[in-house]
Design brief:
7-stranded mixed β-sheet, alpha+beta, 40% helix, DUF1156 domain-containing protein, DUF1156, SAM-dependent_MTases_sf
C-alpha cells in the first residue's frame, strides 16, 4: 500500500505501475540464495525479500516521467506547498533519458529477455525516449532487472540506479549533495534499510527490539565503514575461535576408532510406561526413519524387551516402508512397545514437568557419522564410548558452573515467558528457563564459544580503537547465536535431507520428542566452522556495493526520534496482530548474545511493555494493537515530509487485517493500492 502525503506533487512510478510478476519471480528465487544473503547472517522472522524492497524503493523515489512531463509544462522550476520545495522536472527527465539510452547502447548484454525488445529499439534508433510513456516503460524494465539478485552488486546497475535516485531527489526539491532519507521504524531483519543504501538513499532504521537494531548496525554502519578490514578480522578471529573450541571440546565429541566423525547424535525424550505392571522406559519417537530417499532408506527397528522393562534398537539398511511400524508417540500420547499401553498426554506432561522437559535424561538412539573419503552419511548405534563422552561433558559443565563468576549465569537462567504465551508449548512440559532448552553438552559447547568470543573481543580491542573491535565481536556473536538455532533440544533430524532442521523452521517453540544434537567440534555441518563463513560472505557481498553508511537505533515506533518532515520515504513492514511473537521468540537468541557481548544490555530480556502485538496472556488485545499501530503511523506521518511517500507492506493472507489497519493511518489525503 503506498500513501502520498500531498495531492499537488509529481506522482512516483509506484503510483502508476510496477512489474509485480517479474519482481515476484526474483523474490521467490532469492529464497534459495545461501551465499552472501543477509538472511544467512542471522535469522529474523518475516524478513522481506531484498528484490521486492529494492524495486519498491526505486519506484517510490523515482517520479513517473509521464506525470513529470506534465509538470514540466508549468516551467523549469515550480514551487509547491508553501513554496519551500521547488520541483525541477528536467533534472530527472534529462538524466533518465541519458541513462536509459546509455544502458541500451553500452549494457544491452545485461538486459533480461523480458526487457530486451524495448532496449534494443532504443539502440537501433526506433525509439528515442522523447515520449515520456516510453521512458516510463524502460525505467520499469530497469527496476525489474535490477531486482534480480545477480544484478544487486553489479557496478553498472548500482551506478545507474544511484544516479537516477540523486536526479529524482534534486528534481523533487532535494538539495544537491544530499540524499533522500528512507525511514523504517520496524526495521526487523534489515531488508528495507539495506536496499535504501543500495539504491543511493540514506537509511534510518529503528526497532524496539535490540536484536534487529544490532543486525541493522552491522548492515548499515559496520560493513560500510570498515568493509574488507572487518572481513579480515572476522576471518582471523573466527579461525582462532575454531581452533581453540575444537581443542577444548574434542574429548566430548570423540571420533570413532575407525576414523569416522560423528556429525549428529539422535536423542529421544523418555517416559516410564504407566501400563499395569509394565514400567518400561519408552523413548518418544515420531518416526523410526533415519533416511528416506529413493536410493537410500535407513530406519530403526524396535526390539521390545518386556522382561527387562526396556526397548532396544537395531539399524535396518534398505528398509521397506511396508515393514516399518509407526513411532511411539502421537499427539502427545505415548504407546509402549513392550505392553501396548498408551500413556495419555496429560500423564506424559506430568512426567516431564518434574524433569524440566526431560532433555537431560533423554536416550541416545543413534549416531550419524561421516567417513574419510567416502561420500554420504552413515548410521550406527551408540556405544559406551559415546555415553562416557556425554558424562564427561556433564562433569565439565558442573565444574565450570562452580568456578563461574560474573553478573550473568554461565548457562542462561533467564525465565521463559508464562505458560500460554503465543507460540510457546514447552512450558507445559516443565521448561521454565531458557537453559532448559539445551542438553548439558550443548550448553557446554555454546558457553565455551561465548567465552572465546569475549576473549577475541578483548584482544581485538588492544589493536583497534576506532570501533572495529566492537563490529567484529558483534558479527562473531551472531555466528554463535545462529549456531544455537541448530543446537538445542527442539531441533529435528530430517530423514529426507539427512540434516538437522533448526528450531526456528517455524515461528514457534514447540516440544520436540526426538531431537538431533550436532557435533560442535567436528568442523562439519552445524559446527563453528560451518557457521562463521556465512557472516564473512555477507560482509564481502555487502562491502562490494560501496554503500554509504546509514543509521540504526533502538526506539519505539510510537515515539520516533527523528524530527518533523525529515523523511522522503516512510517504508515499513509492521507487525500483524498475533502473526509472530517477535519479542518472546527473540529472547532465545538474546540470552546467548548477552553472554558473548557482555556490554550488550543490562536488561534480562528484550522489551515487551511497548511491543505492538496481540497476545491475550499479556493483556494485549486487538484494540491495544490497533491503538499502538495508530501511534506508530501517526509518528510516520509526522516524520514524513509533506511531499513524501509512505509505503506500508501488508503480507497477511487475509484482507480483513489490511482493512483494519487502514484507520490506523491518520490524516492521509490520498491512498492508492
Amino acid at each position: 500500500m503506498t500513501l502520498t502525503m500531498h495531492n499537488e506533487y509529481p506522482k512516483r512510478l509506484i503510483e502508476v505501475d510496477l512489474p509485480i510478476a517479474r519482481i515476484s519471480a526474483h523474490a521467490r528465487r532469492e529464497k534459495s540464495i545461501r551465499h552472501g544473503h543477509i538472511s544467512t547472517l542471522h535469522i529474523w522472522w518475516a524478513r522481506r525479500p531484498l528484490a521486492a524492497c529494492r524495486a519498491v524503493i526505486c519506484a517510490s523515489l523515482w517520479p513517473d516521467p509521464v506525470d513529470l512531463t506534465a509538470w514540466a509544462e508549468r516551467g523549469e522550476a515550480i514551487p509547491v506547498g508553501d513554496g519551500s520545495v521547488i520541483v525541477r522536472p528536467y533534472r530527472f527527465l534529462d538524466t533518465a533519458r541519458e541513462r536509459m539510452t546509455a544502458w541500451a547502447n553500452q549494457h544491452l548484454g545485461k538486459v533480461s529477455k523480458e526487457s530486451y525488445s524495448r532496449f534494443v529499439a532504443i539502440q537501433n534508433g526506433a525509439k528515442t525516449l522523447a515520449d515520456p510513456l516510453d521512458l516510463q516503460r524502460v525505467l520499469l524494465d530497469f527496476i525489474a532487472d535490477f531486482a534480480n539478485w545477480d544484478n544487486s552488486t553489479d557496478k553498472d546497475y548500482l551506478e545507474t540506479a544511484r544516479a537516477l535516485t540523486q536526479a529524482a531527489h534534486e528534481a523533487l526539491g532535494g538539495e544537491p549533495e544530499t540524499r533522500p532519507l528512507v525511514v523504517d521504524p520496524f526495521c526487523g531483519g534489515g531488508s528495507i534499510p539495506l536496499e535504501a543504501l543500495r539504491v543511493g538513499a540514506d537509511a534510518f532504521a529503528s526497532d524496539l527490539n535490540p536484536i534487529p537494531v544490532l543486525l541493522n548496525k552491522v548492515l548499515l554502519e559496520y560493513i560500510p565503514k570498515y568493509g574488507q578490514r572487518l572481513a579480515d578480522e572476522v576471518r582471523k578471529w573466527g579461525a582462532w575461535i575454531k581452533q581453540e573450541a575444537e581443542k577444548e571440546l574434542a574429548e566430548f565429541y570423540p571420533k570413532d576408532p575407525d576414523g569416522a566423525t560423528p556429525i549428529a547424535y539422535l536423542w529421544a525424550r523418555t517416559i516410564q510406561c504407566e501400563g499395569p505392571g509394565c514400567g518400561a522406559e519408552v523413548p518418544l519417537m515420531r518416526s523410526l526413519w533415519l533416511a528416506k530417499k529413493e536410493k537410500r532408506s535407513v530406519a530403526l527397528r524396535i526390539i521390545p524387551k518386556p522382561q527387562e522393562k526396556r526397548i532396544d534398537f537395531e539399524i535396518i539398511e534398505n528398509a521397506k516402508a511396508s515393514e516399518q511400524r509407526p513411532g511411539t508417540v502421537k499427539r502427545g500420547s505415548a504407546t509402549c512397545p513392550c505392553c501396548g499401553y498408551t500413556t495419555p498426554v496429560a500423564s506424559v506432561r506430568q512426567q516431564f514437568r518434574s524433569r524440566k522437559g526431560g532433555a537431560l535424561e533423554a536416550r541416545l538412539l543413534c549416531v550419524v557419522v561421516t567417513k574419510p573419503e567416502i561420500q554420504g552419511r552413515f548410521y550406527r548405534l551408540p556405544t559406551q564410548r559415546d555415553i562416557e563422552a556425554v558424562n564427561r561433558a556433564k562433569e565439565e559443565l558442573e565444574r565450570r558452573k562452580k568456578a563461574h563468576q560474573g553478573d550473568l549465569s554461565l548457562v542462561p537462567n533467564e525465565p521463559l515467558p508464562p505458560q500460554g504465551t503465543l507460540g510457546f508449548r514447552v512450558q507445559l512440559y516443565g521448561m521454565e528457563e531458557w537453559g532448559d532448552l539445551f542438553t548439558l553438552r550443548q550448553a557446554l559447547a555454546l558457553t565455551t564459544l561465548a567465552r572465546l568470543i569475549q576473549e577475541a573481543g578483548h584482544e581485538l580491542a588492544q589493536y583497534h580503537r576506532d570501533g572495529l573491535a566492537d563490529a567484529a565481536q558483534t558479527i562473531l556473536a551472531f555466528s554463535l547465536s545462529k549456531l544455537s538455532d541448530f543446537n538445542n533440544s527442539c531441533t529435528r533430524w530430517g530423514n529426507d535431507d539427512q540434516g538437522i532442521t533448526a528450531l526456528f523452521s517455524r515461528q514457534a517453540i514447540p516440544i520436540v520428542w526426538d531431537f538431533a544434537e550436532a557435533n560442535l567440534a567436528s568442523g562439519e555441518a552445524y559446527s563453528w566452522k560451518w557457521s562463521a563463513p556465512f557472516a564473512l560472505r555477507v560482509i564481502e557481498q555487502a562491502a562490494s556495493q560501496n554503500n554509504v553508511s546509514g543509521h540504526a537505533e533502538q526506539a519505539s515506533a510510537g515515539i520516533h526520534p527523528l524530527p518533523n518532515d525529515s523523511a522522503a520515504i516512510f517504508f515499513t513492514d509492521p507487525p500483524y496482530y498475533d502473526a509472530v511473537p517477535y519479542a518472546d521468540l527473540s529472547d532465545f537468541f538474546f540470552v546467548w548474545l548477552k553472554r558473548a557481548l557482555l556490554g550488550l544490555s543490562k536488561e534480562k530480556l528484550t522489551p515487551k511493555t511497548d511491543e505492538c502485538i496481540v497476545d491475550e496472556i499479556k493483556g494485549k488485545d486487538k484494540a491495544y494493537f490497533e491503538r499502538m499501530m495508530g501511534q506508530a503511523m501517526a509518528e510516520g506521518q509526522r516524520v514524513l515530509a509533506p511531499h513524501g511517500v509512505g509505503v506500508i507492506v501488508f503480507a497477511h493472507k487475509s484482507t480483513r487485517g489490511w482493512e483494519a489497519q487502514l484507520p490506523a493511518v491518520p490524516g492521509l489525503l490520498k491512498s492508492s493500492i
